[in-house]
Amino acid sequence: MAQNFGSKRIVVGAHYGFRDWLSQRVTASLMALFTVALIVQVLLPGPMGYDKWAGIFSAQWMKVLTFVVIISLLVHVWVGMRDVLMDYVKPVAVRLTAQVGVIVWLVACAGWSVQVLWRL
User: Fold this and answer.
1) What is d(CA 75, CA 14) in angstroms, rounded to the nearest whole number?
2) By the 8 A CB rule, do 28 and 76 touch?
3) How many domains does the chain have?
4) Is residue 19 exposed (0-12), middle (13-18) or buried (19+ Cβ within 10 Å)?
5) SS3 120
6) Prediction pTM value
7) How does pLDDT run across 32-86, given as a tens digit for each residue?
8) Are residues 114 and 67 in contact, defined by beta-carbon separation less than 8 angstroms?
9) Residue at 12 is within a domain
C-alpha cells in the first residue's frame, strides 16, 4: 500500500482551465444574445438604411451595451489566442513576444471601438 505524504500536484500553464472555459462560455453567450437583439432591431419594419442603422446605435445604453460586447469579444479572443500560443509556440521568447503583440493589438482595438462608438 503506497502512501502519499504531503505531495502536491504541480500544474503550470493554463491554470487548470476551468476559469478560461467559463469565461469563453460567458462571453460567447453574451455575444450571441447581443447578436439576436441586434438582428431583431434590424428586422423591424421600415426601410433599412443609414438612418435606421444610426438610430439603433444612437441611444447611450446601446453604445454602452455594444462596448461591453466588444470587451467580451476581446476577452474571448485573448483567452483563445493565449491558449493557442501556450499549446503550439514552444520557445518562451517567441511566445511572450506573440502574447505581447496580441495584447497591444486588442488594446488598440478597444481604443478604436471607443472612437467609433462615441465619435471622439
Assistant:
1) 15
2) yes
3) 1
4) exposed
5) coil
6) 0.81
7) 999 999 999 989 888 889 998 889 999 999 999 999 999 999 999 999 999 999 9
8) yes
9) no
